[in-house]
Amino acid sequence: MKIAIDARTLGSKPSGIGMYLFDFLKELVKYKEFDICLITDVTKSEYIKSCSKMGMKIIAYGKPVKTYEVFSYFGFIQKQLNIIKPDVFWEVNNLIPRKLKGKFKTVVTIHDMFPITHAGDVGRVYGMYFKHFMKSTVSHADCILYNSMETKKQTVRFYPEAKTKKSMVTHIIVDRIKNVPEIRDDGYFLYVGNMEKRKGVDILLAAYALYKKRGGEKNLLLAGKLNDKYIRNQVYRAMQLSRDIEYMNYVSQKKKNELYAHCSCFIFPSKAEGFGMPVVEVMQFNKPVIVGDLSIYDEIVGDCVNRFNISGEYTVEALSDAMENYNANVDVASYNRVLDSYAPEVLGEKLKKFFLSLR
């Protein structure tokens, strides 16, 4: 089976979606049933180069794709699909902005409905863009992959036609770290993720300020892409007021693992999640975790993490309380059960069977 995949989320600095794809690619390439071809914008990342070394064919657009260039990029994809003649085209990044033609099955992964459910956090223009092209994506796709049952429920809620499509919940692979850094407590709270309002970074900064005012002694370390102007201002203002806050920008997987291994507690105050990958990643290091009381965590990690009221009137106070009083005694057995359910061989085999069922 020949599978063509839009891998532009993997081309430069992979975010969560890029890593979602990479982890599945490492499994799919093991199966002799598949001939995998990646279509991408650029080939700068170590991950896309690794895919080439694993034997995957890489076709590059030649330059980074900005939002206004997506239509041209998909024109490029259409031309490549005409040449490749795949059995399956897999779009991993939510939207297919133009109908693709060919004798192949179109599969799309939908990760969330945030531009609809949290429109104020993504901007009005992108919200309108998302609504329009998600409607056409659901209409034209032959099959849909969801990263969680939560995402599937939200998608069907807004786009009932999705219910008629062949689908599967893939979840997200968590590949166990082979060389775990020394695990120790260096006395800091850690947040790793995109630095944006939806992720609750503003809530975290306010809660940390209150935590320090109440006598808290731990530092706060932040890492992730900072593209949100409002959050950028919030972060720099907070750093001016406190020397105990450090922002590290985008970090490599190796550096991220070191940060996980050395933190006191991991905080993920997101207001909405399709999955919440960092929450599961950090469990490999047996670190306590604080998250908001979102229903998605019932699905992906159960009750083995610390929670606070993310939607109430006193959210900042609730998170500050959680930072002061979190349970540092991790239930290692529960952590391992969670991690086992996202093992590469388990989810890779599941996706393999799904693709083969499309013949």
Task: Give a verbal description of the structure.
It is a single chain. The protein is globular, with a radius of gyration of 21 Å. The strands form two sheets. Strands 3-2-1-4-5-6-7 form a seven-stranded parallel β-sheet, with helices on both faces. Strands 10-9-8-11-12-13 form a six-stranded parallel β-sheet, with helices on both faces. It is built from 14 helices and 13 strands. The chain is an alpha/beta fold and 359 residues long. α7 (201-213) packs parallel to α8 and α7 (201-213) crosses α12 (315-325).
The SSE string, one letter per element, is EHEHEHEEHHEHEEHEHEHEHEHEHHH
What is the gyration radius calculated from CA atoms?
21 Å
* Percent of residues in β-strands: 15-25%
Report strand order across the widest sheet: 3-2-1-4-5-6-7
Q: What is the overall pLDDT average?
A: 95
Element layout with pairings:
Layout: E1 2-6, H1 16-28, E2 35-40, H2 46-53, E3 57-60, H3 70-84, E4 88-91, E5 105-110, H4 114-117, H5 124-140, E6 143-146, H6 149-158, E7 166-169, E8 188-192, H7 201-213, E9 219-223, H8 229-241, E10 245-247, H9 253-262, E11 265-268, H10 277-281, E12 289-292, H11 296-300, E13 306-308, H12 315-325, H13 332-340, H14 344-356
Parallel strand pairs: 1-2, 1-4, 2-3, 4-5, 5-6, 6-7, 8-9, 8-11, 9-10, 11-12, 12-13
